[in-house]
Amino acid sequence: MIALIERPFRRARTQIIRLARDSGAVVMIEMAFCIPILVMVGFAGIELANLTLSHTRVSQIGLSAADNASRIAFGSNLSLPRVREYDINEVFTGVEEQARGMDFKANGRIILSSLERNPDGGQWIHWQRCYGDLDIDSAYGPQGTGATGTGFAGMGETGREVTAAAGTAVMFVEIHYNYKPLVGTKWFGTPRISSTAAFNIREGRDLAGHNGSGTYNPAPTATVSNCT
What sign has the CA pseudo-torsion 64, 70, 74, 78? Predict the structure, then answer.
């Protein structure tokens, strides 16, 4: 009779001891704690990779825009090539194509300036055009900066400014883009990515333009991409 009573208690004791020695539950608890951390690290890695890629894309877009602007050469063999507003807009069309998927127009701005030498031998932003809805101005001044005198050093990093030689021009690009995160702003926010690029024009060019404006806009006229 006593043995019959003790048997269930022995069985329960055995089960308790076996449960105490079982490490399977520990692994499950550890995984429950680790999985959220691993997921967070994974998302952070994806966001960091996308941010790095965006930096590279913005830099490459700026370089391509400056390069394309330096190649503008509309005209005949009987006259120097001219820069038309249509050609400038084509450069910006190329920007939009390269930035496909970035929603660049709404979140970015590219500023294209023609840096030239003024009659006094100083540097001069002869004309300037912009594309994109981001409200930001050129860091070096608007169109017309440095038109007279020699006080304007050029464009670029202080002490290492880009300058134009007499009779030629430098296509200088400033590009800005408000980063669009993939998995939320809590990782890196929405930092502004900025870059600059400069290319000397590839060949001789009519720098005067219509009435001294630096550009032409023959019929059918194109929309002027002013920076206002």
Answer: negative
125-151: pLDDT as tens digits: 999 999 999 999 999 999 999 999 999
Q: CA-CA distance, 143 to 114, in Å (whole number)?
A: 9
For residues 131 and 109, is the Cβ–Cβ distance under 8 A?
yes
Q: Which amino acid is at 151?
A: G
Give the integer Cα–Cα distance in Å for 174 and 157: 12
- Chain centroid offset of residue 44 CA: 20
pTM here is 0.82
Q: Are 205 and 81 contacting, i.e. CB atoms less than 8 angstroms apart?
A: yes
Other beta carbons less than 10 A from residue 112's beta carbon: 26
**H/E run at residue 6:** helix 2-21
> In the Cβ-directed half-sphere of 129, how many Cα atoms lie within 13 Å?
23
